[in-house]
Amino acid sequence: MSFNLIQGIHYSEHNMEGEFDNDYIIKSVSETYQKPGVGLTEHRPKAAHPHHTFYEDVNIPDDIYAPFALKTVKLINEICDTDDFKIDDVWGHLVKPNEQTMVHSHRQVGGLVQGLAWVYYPHMEKDMGNLHFISDAGGNRVIMEVPVKPSHLYIFSREVLHFTPINATKTDRVSISGNFYTNWAFLDNVKPDNNFFKYIGRNDKYDTIYD
Fold this sequence. Notes:
Blueprint: E1 12-15, H1 22-32, E2 57-58, H2 62-79, E3 86-95, E4 101-104, E5 115-121, E6 131-137, E7 140-146, E8 152-157, E9 161-164, E10 173-181, H3 184-189, H4 196-200
Antiparallel strand pairs: 1-8, 2-3, 3-10, 4-9, 5-8, 5-10, 6-7, 6-9
C-alpha cells in the first residue's frame, strides 16, 4: 500500500519586523481613506458601492509602494529560486470597527495565468479579526483561521478565497495587500519541486500547472 499526493496548497508567513515603517503606514492609509483619488495605485480607489470587495481599498503614496514592491519581490524570488516574479499592484486596506472584508480572491481575469497574492499587517490587536482561508476537502468546505501577527507578511495563491471577520475593536484595522505575476518562461520551465507549487498546488504525477 502507498499514499500519493492528490493536491495541496500552502501559505507562507514571514516576520518583516523592522523592514517597514508601521506607524507611517497606519497614518498614511488612515488619512488617505477619505481621499480615494490620491496615491500611486489609482486603479485601486475606495469603491462607490459598499458591497463591492474594493470598498475598503485605499490608494497609497510612492514612499509606501516602493519599499513593498522592492522587498516582497525579492522575497518571493528567493522562495521560488527565480528572478521572474514582478509586482502587479499594491494597495492599502482599512476596515473600520464593526466592519469586515467580504469573501474574495485576487484571481486574475485574462492575461497571465499565474501569480501570487500577499498581505502585510503593520498592527493586529486582539479581536481585530484574523485572516481566514476557504478551501474544499472531501466535498466539504474548510475554513482555516490564520492567527495574524503584527509586522508579518503572508503569501498565498491568488485563486484561494479568503476573508477577515468583523473588526471587534474600536481601532481601524489597516493592512497592505499586493499581487505578483510571473512570465511564461517561468511557467513553462518551473521544476515540480519548486516552492511555487506549495502555493498553487499540484498533482503528484506532475504534467502541467494549467487546468
